[in-house]
Amino acid sequence: MSLKDLLKDQQKAAMLAKQKARLGTIRLLMAEIKQREVDTRTELGDEEILAVVTKMVKQRRDSIAQFEAAGRQDLADVESAEIAVLQEFLPQQLTAEEIAALIEQAVADTGAAAMADMGKVMGVLKPKIQGRADVGAVSAQVKARLA
């Protein structure tokens, strides 16, 4: 079953169970996927859909930080609930040890020795960690490793 079919099934289940918050989040995700498909004039595969989900989670995390800074915990709670629903569609997250091992492997594969090689290392890592780890955090770890 493709991720898109899973989303449609989950949307129907949320409708039948009258879970308004969950249904709203899934509808937002489906709308974003549809918008991407219209923009690119192609049907998105599972990897592209994972990229959309990852982007939406990141947007919500940024919003939570801004809402908490503004003292709007009620809005931050709504965003947190949306993140919980979105994360159900992401693959199992990598552990810190797995990320460190992937970084070491990528550094060894590319022969990276300095900060100038960071692009090569991230080019190898990004497909392996997409949707399974925060790319920004991994980038910071690669930067620390190469420095």
Automatic annotation (TrEMBL):
GO MF term set: carbon-nitrogen ligase activity, with glutamine as amido-N-donor
Highest taxon in the source lineage: Bacteria
Signal peptide from the UniProt entry: none
Stored InterPro entries: Asn/Gln_tRNA_amidoTrase-B-like (IPR003789), GatB_Yqey_C_2 (IPR023168), YqeY/Aim41 (IPR019004), YqeY/Aim41_N (IPR042184)
Stored PANTHER family: ALTERED INHERITANCE OF MITOCHONDRIA PROTEIN 41, MITOCHONDRIAL
Protein name: GatB/YqeY domain-containing protein
